[in-house]
Amino acid sequence: MKKVLRVYGGVMRLVRLLPADSRPYYAKYARENFVNYREVDQSETSLDELFQRAYNHSLWVLKKYSIDESAATKLKEICFE
Q1: Global pTM?
Q2: What family does the database annotate?
């Protein structure tokens, strides 16, 4: 559970780097996804897949807004530890 909260916090920190007008959308999107997946099977494999998906989606959004991917380094460390 702690890792899930750390990943969520990492995603929300990245949302703060986005342009002000797009932050509410992505903050809501991230929250809804984390809430929807809280019922997921707690096997290690499925959580790892969700963490990888969160990281990949974060990279896509950063790239969309021309933000350097290195901003997601900490999230990568959390997701793949």
Answers
A1: 0.86
A2: Belongs to the complex I LYR family. LYRM9 subfamily.
